[in-house]
Amino acid sequence: MRVHGQHLRTVTLEGSVVVLIDQTLLPHQLAFCRCATPADTARAIRDMTVRGAGAIGATGALGVAQAALLAPDSGYFDQLRADAAVLRATRPTAQNLFAGVDTVLHAALAETTPDRSRAAAVAAAQAFADDDAACCAAIGAHGAPLIGERARVSTHCNAGWLAFVDWGSALSPIYAAARAGRRPFVWVDETRPRGQGASLTAWELAQEGVEHAIIADNATGHYMARGEIDLVIVGADRIAANGDVANKIGTYSSAVVAARHGIPFYVAAPTTTIDPATPTGADIPIEERSADELLWTQGVDADGVWRRVRTTPAGATGRNPAFDVTPASLIAGIITERGIVPATAAGIASVARRGPSAGPPA
Ligand code: MRU
Q1: Catalytic residue IDs
Q2: Is 52 in the pocket of ligand 1 (CB under 6 A)?
Q3: Three-class secondary structure of residue 89 per DSSP
Q4: 104, 249, 274, 357: most buried by Cβ count inside 10 Å?
Q5: What is the tens place of the pLDDT at every residue in 227-277?
Q6: Is the C-beta atom of 157 inside 6 A of ligand 1?
Q7: Are residues 183 and 133 in the same domain?
Q8: Same domain, yes or no: 159 and 308
Q9: Which of 235, 256, 263, 257 is nearest to 247 (CA)?
Q10: 224: CA distance to ligand 1 center in Å?
């Protein structure tokens, strides 16, 4: 996507360095994080320097390629497996991470010499990242017809291009519609506690010139009840075989209220987000992050100085689940690169991928 007229991807491999847009600094500063080792790359995923299902999937893929490039000939395959395991363990919910790591590891382990394995790993990682960008562009093309001339779309969290390599999932149909000359309006859920909607989605939409308003998460129902939301499009971190969807915490509440008001609720995701081995949403591991993300908040003050401040009583405790599960019955359709399919076992099976992303190589 264009930022200040320059075409950027969220994650790239430069030599053996994984280069990421540092999402913790947005919207105040556009800066890049250079990860020199697989341990650095794993840390960037874990601390959410890079976040979003597709972006961490591509980072995992490029991280395995980085591991292959840096592993010495002696003990090469053992080192590669160990580094891939560390990358795989960084975050538990987004299926794309496992798809990225496993796809590249599978390609690297199919070769018998370190040099051939390194070349295979780099090619597979670049292909995985390119595929993510291409899938998101196709999601935009399939989803754009849902966006009418002045459609008012609600979205939650950030499932835009920052959450992928390029284009995004939930925002891609909106970008496609806007580039086709329509004038959608986007209600941007703030997305407590980390504020990915307020900080990242709003920043992306402004870059693309799409009209929008940030609202508190608990204002979404209010605007639905007033008839000011025509449809909802959200992303997904994992889609179970039965069509249940794990996405950012607060998605489920939005889906319930949308159903109450007869508002179509779509999920947009590349098929790398589908996990055929997870039968239902109840089987999806839900990440629980530090309660400090809830108890403290951060940003810049009026002078542009970064501040981290506590907004809660000293010593207060909290709980911070990062995702929730929206049951398939509340979802109008899943917008994939292969078309819009119903959130049913048959719909999911009709587009699901087979291959290494179904699990780590033995
Ligand atoms: O915790 P995050 O920011 O990595 O969460 C992932 C997400 O960005 C959202 O859940 C998003 O809606 C789906 S991922 C494209």
Answers
A1: 237
A2: yes
A3: coil
A4: 104
A5: 999 999 999 999 999 999 999 999 999 999 999 999 999 999 999 999 999
A6: yes
A7: no
A8: yes
A9: 235
A10: 23
